[in-house]
């Protein structure tokens, strides 16, 4: 049975907009505060989305700005109440049973903090132990493990307000995991972090999932997060589900072109290859002795293109590249897939 079941979930925000009256624009400006006409506008942030997630899965939500990712994850975390549709996590409707639900989930949303700003980090952890009613023995074991995993030892005595963004993110992650939740929700966990910290966070999340079997759901704009953490990709645009499946399947289905980059002996020879490329090559680019050849993987294999070139030329170097998921996602955002 699925751990998370989302069925025709919809969230509409009702926002107040102010209509300017002709009076306001004219000489009666002074009385405009008496003539403000309020009207409401509906913003459909999540629109009729359905999917299921199994225990232990790692799922990344991807989509352009304003797509509805955060709204969706906040509903899953019980922070927002859906407008319609149904949502169950382990049999519980998150927003209806928030207290019990909170005991089983961990949440890391960048703007919020679960830590006490003026206290040393270790004191925040101690307070969370009391709030989550963690036994001293479990607390000791889990905290030790998290300190090592997230490299927190050097910052344990520092007040939270003195921590850098990367240090705070690692601390937030530990705070969200102290009570060993079944599900972890993260909203853009690597945003604004340097490469080394991003890598530490990604490695830690992978390890957490492997060691504890924590189900991880995250929103991101960084495809590397998806590639390195997630088994499954859910793409959302304009509140609608555009893709739900594995990254490999996404590549196969939408990244039609593959790429071979080949270095020949000099740019003149390279230009000869550009003028007369192998069959089924749809596009070429040249930079000095390097030629990049794009071909449709449904029509020919990388090995056939490579051997065609090697039969005709002396090849100094040859690289077969994965289809560019970044490019495909950008194109996907631009086009309407439905
Ligand atoms: N509290 C709110 N009140 C009104 N509208 C909101 C609210 N929160 C989000 N929205 C609107 O809902 C839509 C979806 O926003 P959401 O933050 O879920 O998107 P997102 O995919 O997470 O975007 P981003 O990648 O930019 O963070 C947007 O049009 C946004 O303006």
UniProtKB/TrEMBL annotation:
Native source species: Paenibacillus radicis
GO molecular function annotation: ATP binding
ABC transporter domain span: 31-263
Alphabetical list of PROSITE patterns matching this protein: ABC_TRANSPORTER_1, ABC_TRANSPORTER_2
Ranges annotated as spanning the membrane: none
The protein's name: ATP-binding cassette domain-containing protein
InterPro entries the UniProt entry points to: AAA+_ATPase, ABC_transporter-like_ATP-bd, ABC_transporter-like_CS, ABC_transporter_ATP-binding, P-loop_NTPase
Keywords associated with the record: ATP-binding, Nucleotide-binding, Transport
């Amino acid at each position: 049975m699925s751990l998370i079941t989302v069925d025709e979930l919809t969230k509409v925000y009702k926002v107040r907009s102010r209509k300017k009256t002709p009076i306001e624009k004219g000489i009666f400006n002074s009385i405009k505060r008496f003539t403000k006409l309020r009207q409401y506008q509906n913003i459909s942030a999540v629109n009729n989305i359905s999917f299921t997630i199994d225990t232990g899965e790692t799922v990344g939500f991807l989509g352009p700005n304003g797509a509805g990712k955060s709204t969706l994850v906040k509903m899953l975390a019980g922070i927002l109440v859906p407008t319609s549709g149904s949502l169950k996590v382990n049999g519980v409707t998150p927003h209806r049973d928030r207290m019990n639900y909170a005991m089983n989930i961990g949440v890391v949303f960048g703007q919020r903090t679960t830590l006490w700003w003026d206290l040393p980090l270790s004191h925040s952890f101690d307070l969370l132990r009391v709030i989550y009613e963690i036994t001293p023995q479990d607390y000791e074991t889990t905290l030790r493990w998290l300190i090592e995993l997230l490299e927190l030892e050097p910052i344990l005595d520092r007040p939270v307000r003195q921590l850098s963004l990367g240090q705070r993110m690692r601390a937030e992650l530990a705070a969200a995991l102290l009570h060993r939740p079944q599900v972890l929700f993260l909203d853009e966990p690597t945003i604004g972090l340097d490469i080394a910290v991003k890598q530490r966070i990604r490695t830690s999340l992978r390890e957490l999932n492997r060691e504890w079997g924590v189900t991880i759901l995250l929103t991101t704009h960084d495809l590397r997060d998806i590639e390195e953490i997630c088994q499954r990709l859910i793409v959302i645009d304009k509140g609608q589900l555009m893709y739900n499946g594995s990254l490999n399947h996404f590549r196969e289905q939408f990244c039609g072109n593959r790429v071979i980059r080949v270095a020949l002996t000099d740019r003149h020879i390279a230009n000869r290859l550009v003028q007369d490329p192998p069959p089924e090559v749809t596009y070429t680019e040249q930079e000095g002795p390097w030629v990049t050849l794009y071909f449709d993987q449904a029509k020919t294999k990388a090995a056939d293109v490579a051997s065609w070139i090697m039969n005709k030329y002396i090849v100094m170097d040859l690289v077969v590249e994965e289809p560019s998921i970044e490019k495909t996602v950008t194109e996907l955002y631009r086009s309407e897939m439905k």
